[in-house]
Structures are given as structure tokens and as C-alpha cells.
Amino acid sequence: MSFPPKSTAARILWVVCIALLFIVVFAPLASSPENPLAVRVNSSVDRKITTTLELAGASSAAALAVSAIPDDTATPIAEKLADFGSGFLLVLCVLYFEKMMFGAVGYILCALIVPAVLVLYLLSEVWRRRALRIFAGCLLASGILIWLMVPAGLWVSDFVYETQHETVQEIIASAGDLSLEVEEGSEEMNGEEDGNVVERIMTRVSSFSAEMVQKAKRLITGFLRALALMIVTACVIPLAVMAVFVWIIKLIFQLGFSLEYPEIHRWERPFRREERPGAGSES
Predict the structure, then answer these.
(1) Is the residue at 196 inside a domain?
(2) What is each CA distance from 267 to 131, 261, 263, in whole angstroms?
(3) Which is more confidently placed, 177 or 281?
(4) Which of 47, 179, 227, 253 could form a disulfide bond with 65, CB atoms 3.0-4.6 angstroms apart?
(5) Is residue 179 part of a domain?
(6) Burial of 165 from C-beta contacts in 10 A (0-12 / 13-18 / 19+)
(7) Which residue range is the domain that position 226 belongs to?
């Protein structure tokens, strides 16, 4: 038996069998979190999710600690630290979206796009339409590129993320140290019990508050850097990679159809009205 088969019935049978194979076998495998590529994608995303959760928790704990500092200037600093939670929540949503998108796109590729490509190929053979075959090839290439879009974006973002990972961990540690210092300082001041408690507490509160406020201000700068890093690695870089892949997909369709319809890629406008010879000289 030759491949591809000559008769239309045999071709339909082959298309149905291959389509069912992709729907039943490859679609669950592509969407499974246990396949090797999904394991690498989930590992990369989970690492960023863990860091984002640590940053969100550290900013909230630092805001709570700074609010306990007996100084009026500490209140706006505490509010600013608490505001970082919304930014980290946005990063967290994007990371979960990337994680779910990879499995969903893999399933759509095997369960919908590949069977559609097979049907288009069958119709192109039956109707002798080369354009359908070209469109099927472009559609298949586009589906594969869309499926690889998330791993490619994560690969680029991981390269940037790893260079700044230690800095983020230092920021988280600094937030924990600040919370611990505020708690210990408050306990020491509350433990004074002799007659000069008022004078000594006021003196220590003044110096302690000034020191903690300066550390809190430096911590705000650190959280700004950490939030900017997470936004770049989780949002900006994947979007930039997505734009590159969309441009490649557009180029594939343009090149594919230029083989069949070269006239649609002329520089001049296809619907521009042509001037008749001598029409401009008429008065």
C-alpha cells in the first residue's frame, strides 16, 4: 500500500486515524504537567511564583512592622510598603496565566489545529487546490510556534532573573531583619520599669524611630527594584517574545501565500485606480 494512498476513501481513513491519534494520545500528553517540556516550564514558573509570594509577604510584614514605629513619618512609609502587594499580585496572576496557557495551547494544538490541518490537506488533494495545502502548512507552523511561545519567553526571562536572584533574596532578608529589629526594640522599651522610664523611653524612641525610618526608606527602594525585576521577567520579556513570534507567524503566512498569489504582495495598492494614457493632458 502506497503512502499517501491514491483513493479518496483511503485518504479519508488515514486522516481520521491520524486525527484520532492526536486527539486521544498526543493532546493529553501535550497538556500533561508530567511531560519533559512542561516540567521545565512549571519549574521555572513555580520558582518565580515562590519568589513573588515571598516578596509580597515580606512587604506586608515590613509594612506592619513600620506602622508600629512611634513616629508620624513612619505611617506613609508603611502605606507605601503595603501598596507593593498589588504589584506583586499582578505579577502572580501573569505567572499563573503563563503556566496554564502552556498546557491549554498544547491541547488545542493537538486536538484542534492538527486535525484541522489534516482536513485541509485532504481537501487540497481532493479539490486540487494548492492554496489549501499552503494554508494548512502555515496553520501547523503557527500552532507549533504559539505552543513554543511560553517556553521561549521563560528561557529568556530566566536568563535575566538568575542574574538578579541574589539581590531579591537580600531584599527579602532585609525586610525580615527590619521586622525583627522593630519587634525587639519595642520589647526593650516596654520592659523599662524604673523611675526614669519616661525620659529614657523618649530618648530611645527618638533615636530608634529615626534609625528604623531610614532603614524603611532603603527597604522601599529595594522593593521597587524587586517589583521592577519581577514585572520585567514575568510580563515585559514574555510580551516581547510573543511579539517576535507573532511577527514570525505573519511572515510565514505572507511567504506562504506569496508562492500561490504573488500579485497580492506588490508595492502598489491593489485597488488603486490606474490613470489612462493622456487623461492628465485633457483640459
Answers:
(1) no
(2) 22, 14, 9
(3) 177
(4) 179
(5) yes
(6) middle
(7) 8-186+207-260
Q: Are 168 and 229 in contact (CB under 8 A)?
A: yes
Place of cell 527579602: 172
| Distance (Å, whole) CA 238 – CA 189 | 50
pTM: 0.75
3-state helix, strand, coil in the chain (%, to 5): 85, 0, 15
Phi, psi angles (nearest 5°) of residue 172: -60, -40
- Number of independent structural domains in the chain: 1
Mean pLDDT of 70-82: 75
| In-domain check, residue 73 | yes
**Per-residue pLDDT tens for 207-250?**
556 677 777 778 888 888 889 989 998 889 988 999 999 999 98
Burial (CB count within 10 angstroms: exposed 0-12, middle 13-18, buried 19+), residue 160: middle
Q: Which of 167, 170, 158, 169 is nearest to 234 (CA)?
A: 158
Does residue 274 sit in helix, strand or coil? coil
Q: How many residues does the chain have?
A: 283
What is the Rg, in whole angstroms, of the alpha carbon atoms belonging to the chain?
A: 31
Instruction: Please indicate, yes or no, if residue 283 is contained in any of the structural domains.
Output: no
